[in-house]
Amino acid sequence: MNPKLPYVLLVGAAVIIFILSCMLLSRGRQSPSCESQPSIVEKTGSMSKSLVFADLTPEEMVQVVRYLQGNLGVQLVDASRAKPSDNCIASVDLQVPTKAEVLRFLDGGGARPPREALAVLYFGNQPDPNVTEYVVGPLPTPVYHRDVTVQKYGGKVPYHRRPMLSSEYKQVGVFLKTVAFSAAPTFLQEVLEYDSNNVAFQTTAPHGFHSGDRITWFVLFQNVSGFFVHPVGLEVLVDHSSLDISQWAVIRVFYNGQYYRDMVQLESAYVQGRISVEKVRKAPRDGDFSSMKPRAPWAALFPLQYEPQGPRYSIRNNLVRFQAWSFAFGMSVSTGLRLFDIRHKGERVAYEISVQEALSVYGSNCPGGMSTRYMDGSFGLGRYTSPLVRGVDCPYSATYVDTHSLSETLRPSKRKASLCIFEQNLGSPLRRHYSNLQSLYYGGLVNSALVFRSIATVGNYDYVWDFIFYQNGAIEGKVQATGYPSSSFLHGDGLRYGNRLWEHTLGMINTHFINYKVDLDVGGVKNSLVAHDMAFEMIRAPWSPEQQIERPRLTKKVLDTEDQAAFRLQSKMPRYIYFAANSKNKWGHQRGYRIQITSFAGDHIPEASSMERAISWARYQLAVTRRKEEEPTSTSIYNQNDPWTPTIAFADFINNETITNEDLVAWITTGFLHIPHSEDIPNTVTVGNAVGFLLRPYNYYDLDPSIYSHDGVFFTNEQDLTACEINPLACLPKTASCLPNFPPFTYDGFQNM
């Protein structure tokens, strides 16, 4: 044996032990944790100016209810158990002060406007039942109330226009199960295997054909997960117009293509064998094909985003700051998310941006589907704001904000994590250029934007509402639709109205229209509306007159009146349309903000329709009007149940008034046509179902403001690309190699339903 061999083996063993030790030590040494989030959502006694727009606190809501209970001289029943013949509080929300008051306070050193609430009350227990709206104040200790109903709507609001309370839906359900269904026991048992718990009801709206009607088709489904796509073929028309529940009646029944006078006639026809029965296979409790339970196990984790040095935005009360942006936010019970006092680089560019309405119009050969025109603001886009699931609805590391509301109860309710805010790297450059001509360099800016989000689940549909703030001064309003498609029982010529989604399921064709209010204040309150576009002109080439050149030129037009500024849904609209300030940029151009709409809307309901005026905002892809305090919204929660005599008709806003150098509002309508298809099972995806608008600076600045972003990257061929001071990306292995501080997963969406 070679005498050196033992020494070689010993040295080799030592080296191996050293390497293994280093590996073990390195494995035991964790990367440092990323910086934690800065102070987020401070709920303090601060009197920040943004609080003029803040939602009511739970304590303020309680004080308003106590005041109303003690000062109206009538008994107020909790709306959650109120009968139609009772008096109750339907909702309590913030009464936003007038714009003039707010601007005096924000900009002119004026007094803080008194803080007030708007209370909507149903008075069913009096000789003249009606809906009354009161302004109650000042908060937090109210001492007065004033009836503003006539001032707002020109008269009293008739009682039949009131949105249905949850208690009324429950009462209709009890009526159907205990009274109506008792008239057809054989049919229900043998055809539906009815046991009082295995059917679910879906309402339709509006309720009838004439003012004063409260006659509703209720569509029956199997009571399983995702019941919206499990129709059983039975629909029942209930007259619930009487304030006396004992007077409610079934006035028509529909089953599998045939109409019957009532449940008695349906039972008789079935017993006599005169009904064509389509028995639906009983679905398991999880819904089978409609279940959203994943069909595959978890595998590799999807990508996550994190903030290595903590969030770059801050939230204090209802004020958000992000780089050059700041804005105040709130949540209306009826219309949902709304923003106020939106500023870029300290200058206000918009006073208000808010959702107004979400409309859907359905088609079917079943009565419930063919008569449905949902106006979701009546149900409550804010009321039905969903608790958000961390990591799916928003990034896991987003900031989640609780909101509070008082609707259909005497006590405020908390909606945990119903808003989220996060900065998102969109994975593409906001701008870039690679130069290989004359000089060699690269310049670019990551497209990182702040997203402010809420999601409303109104019945079968989920609307993802986003407001997005970009580093170049642009704002995007976007809505994405998901949830379940509405369906009818497939029979006869049903395929004229949609596609077959399952054995007995017709996915009904439907339109979606979304309306926004955008109160831009570009360089001040007074603006004008200007349109720029292009046209080709034919000229002879100056250097070669025998040759013709077609060159595009700029066209310009000031739109002087509201009629000129009202663009019908499918009409051609100038591709550059902007609010112009009374000031100019360095290059002599009027400073402006351009409105750019993304929409795939279907057709608007014909104007000859008896209910069209109630949704006449949907006639227009864009309408710009003078801003008026008496025209705060494009629609009303009362239009849903009486569209034939609308409480607010947007078409009346457009009366050819001059809009040059005035305080203006843009009413933007966007939407899409949905023809449900087999890939809408188990439910609809957001991909391809996103629409909205952009507000973009147009000569507002002297150059792109994002050039001042700290995120810019620039280097040349002559520089050391690995030097951190030259190229921040070279430092990422050091500055971004930290472990995210992911909080424990929690979800409170099933609490206090």
UniProtKB/TrEMBL annotation:
Positions of modified residues (2',4',5'-topaquinone): Y461
Organism listed in the record: Sclerurus mexicanus (tawny-throated leaftosser)
Any one GO biological process: amine metabolic process
Enzyme class: oxidoreductase
SUPFAM superfamilies: Amine oxidase catalytic domain, Amine oxidase N-terminal region
Span of domain Copper amine oxidase N2-terminal: 74-144
Protein name in the entry: Amine oxidase
Pfam families to which the protein is assigned, alphabetical: Cu_amine_oxid, Cu_amine_oxidN2, Cu_amine_oxidN3
Swiss-Prot/TrEMBL cofactor(s): Cu cation
